[in-house]
């Protein structure tokens, strides 16, 4: 009997032809050597952080902007350059990055900072006071008698504030030699900060505008040179990715996702080139996954609210909060939350980009009413709710 030697599945897949040279450069977390069209924002951050090179604690900075406008990339780029020059000048400066979607409480963030700075602190088991003491103990003068200046980047800080309140900011603003760089997609995130903490923050604000289509073309061209084999991209591919992303509020992450997914579709089809129709397929695929991922992680009561909005949209009814609550109670079958809680759900769904709200006046003496509109395709939402 003849012996058949089976090829290792990874060798077999590795031998398949691909349009890619290296995909990692299309990952939004990759930090390139230069950031096109963000020179002004880099300088804005640097002009505050430069104080650290004179052993002066920089002012706190708040960075606003929609998703994919380069907020994280700019802060990490500035960090890299500051740490490089601080090392050359022998200044005791550190810049630590914390993503608040991973560390969602004051305890977790401070424990993580301690760990990143070489102090072994457990994520549970200590009191908050013990963790804070361990953190502040790190600021004793180093062997050269120089104070440590610490800049802490808190990315997506609104997540932490909503989850755990402003205790972390209270602690950090009352720790000497600490500067906070807060990053948020939402201009109104400070509603979660109490006045006593807000007054200590005294932050400088930097707003990141969305990229336009031509700027996105420039970004994609830079990344594509490193990512794709020469000549595999049809001439219309990058302009189309850029145009679609420009409509999504200038989201560079979305543009990169479109380009990468288009290339992956070309590989799946065994094509030696990436064509315009692959970009349109990639758009449908990404949007379906995005909506499904969001809906699947929503609490059941919020899903019921979304289901009620979908129902009223299909019925072509004007959706007021009062009418929404009536339908929601029917969908909930006795297991419903209060009318006041519905407003929280509406705000959260709006922040996720699934709905929008606008206030209209009903005329003299009739007051003002909130009108709710669905912001994603009904078909996608139906799939996510009922088939997800």
Give a concise summary.
The protein is α/β, with parallel strands linked by helices.
Notes on the protein architecture:
- It contains 16 helices and seven strands.
- With 388 residues, it is an alpha/beta fold.
- The chain folds into three domains: 31-208, 3-Layer(aba) Sandwich (Rossmann fold); 212-295, Helicase, Ruva Protein, domain 3 (Orthogonal Bundle); 298-387, Arc Repressor Mutant, subunit A (Orthogonal Bundle).
- The protein is globular and about 70 Å long.
- The two termini are 48 Å apart.
- The model has no long low-confidence stretch (mean pLDDT 90).
Any guess at the CATH architecture of the largest domain?
3-Layer(aba) Sandwich
Tally of discrete structural domains: 3
Strand order, main sheet: write it out.
2-3-4-1-5
Helical run tally? 16
SSE order, as H and E?
HHEHEHHEHHEHEHHHHHHHEEH
Low-confidence stretches are none
End-to-end Cα distance, whole Å, is 48 Å
Q: What structural category do the secondary elements indicate?
A: alpha/beta
CATH topology of the largest domain: Rossmann fold
Beta-strand proportion: 5-15%
Radius of gyration computed on alpha carbons: 25 Å
* Count of distinct strands: 7
The named CATH superfamily of the largest domain: P-loop containing nucleotide triphosphate hydrolases
What is the CATH top level name of the largest domain?
Alpha Beta
Question: What fraction, in percent, of the residue positions are helical?
Answer: 40-55%
Task: Kindly report the average pLDDT value.
Answer: 90
């Amino acid at each position: 009997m003849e012996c058949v030697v089976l090829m290792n599945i990874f060798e077999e897949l590795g031998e398949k032809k691909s349009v890619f040279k290296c995909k990692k450069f299309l990952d939004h977390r990759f930090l390139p050597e230069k950031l096109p069209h963000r020179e002004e924002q880099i300088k804005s951050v640097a002009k505050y952080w430069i104080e650290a090179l004179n052993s002066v604690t920089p002012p706190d900075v708040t960075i606003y902007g929609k998703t994919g406008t380069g907020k994280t990339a700019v802060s990490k780029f500035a960090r890299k350059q500051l740490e490089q020059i601080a090392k050359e000048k022998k200044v005791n400066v550190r810049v630590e990055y914390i993503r608040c979607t991973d560390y969602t409480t004051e305890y977790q963030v401070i424990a993580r900072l301690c760990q990143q700075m070489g102090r072994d602190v457990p994520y549970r088991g200590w009191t908050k006071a013990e963790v804070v003491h361990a953190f502040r103990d790190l600021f004793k003068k180093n062997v050269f008698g120089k104070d440590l200046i610490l800049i802490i980047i808190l990315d997506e800080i609104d997540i932490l504030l909503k989850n755990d309140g402003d205790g972390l900011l209270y602690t950090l603003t009352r720790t000497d030699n600490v500067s906070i760089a807060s990053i948020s997609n939402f201009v109104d995130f400070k509603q979660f900060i109490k006045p006593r903490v807000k007054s200590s923050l005294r932050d400088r604000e930097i707003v990141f505008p969305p990229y336009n289509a031509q700027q996105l073309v420039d970004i994609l061209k830079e990344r594509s040179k490193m990512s794709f084999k020469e000549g595999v991209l049809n001439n219309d591919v990058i302009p189309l990715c850029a145009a679609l992303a420009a409509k999504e509020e200038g989201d560079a992450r979305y543009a990169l996702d479109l380009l990468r997914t288009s290339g992956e579709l070309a590989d799946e089809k065994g094509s030696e080139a990436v064509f315009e129709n692959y970009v349109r397929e990639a758009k449908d695929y990404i949007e379906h996954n995005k909506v499904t991922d969001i809906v699947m992680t929503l609490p059941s009561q919020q899903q019921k609210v979304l289901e009620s909005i979908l129902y009223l949209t299909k019925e072509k009814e004007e959706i007021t909060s009062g009418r929404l609550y009536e339908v929601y109670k029917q969908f909930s079958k006795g297991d419903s939350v209060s009318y006041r809680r519905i407003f929280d759900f509406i705000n959260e769904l709006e922040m996720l980009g699934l709905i929008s709200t606008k206030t209209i006046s009903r005329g003299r003496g009739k007051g003002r009413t909130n009108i709710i509109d669905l912001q994603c395709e009904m078909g996608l939402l139906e799939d996510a709710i009922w088939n997800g």
